[in-house]
Amino acid sequence: MQRMPTKAELTSSEFSLLREIVARSFLSSRPVSALHRKRLVELGLVLDAMGGLMPTPAGRIVARM
Q1: Has residue 20 been placed in a domain?
Q2: Is residue 38 part of a domain?
Q3: What's the pTM?
Q4: Which range marks the domain in which residue 39 is found?
Q5: How far apart, in whole angstroms, are the C-alpha atoms of residue 7 and residue 48?
Q6: What are the tens digits of pLDDT across the range 6-47?
Q7: 62 exposed, middle or buried (CB, 10 Å; 0-12, 13-18, 19+)?
Q8: Out of 2, 30, 55, 59, which could bridge 45 as a Cys pair, Cβ 3.0 to 4.6 Å?
Q9: Is 2 a domain residue?
Q10: What is the number of structural domains in the chain?
């Protein structure tokens, strides 16, 4: 990741998912589309770890924009 992505670069569903992950700090129970999961990980906004998604510091910042 060369720079932090902005909210404008996310679809509304990706942004909603990111906000949900940030609010919970860990998301494992809700089914997440593989495409959304992959994109948020590639953008450096979440980590796919321990069987769920966890926000990165960049993800926390973008979710609050």
Answers
A1: yes
A2: yes
A3: 0.84
A4: 7-63
A5: 20
A6: 888 999 999 999 999 999 888 877 788 889 889 999 999 999
A7: buried
A8: 59
A9: no
A10: 1
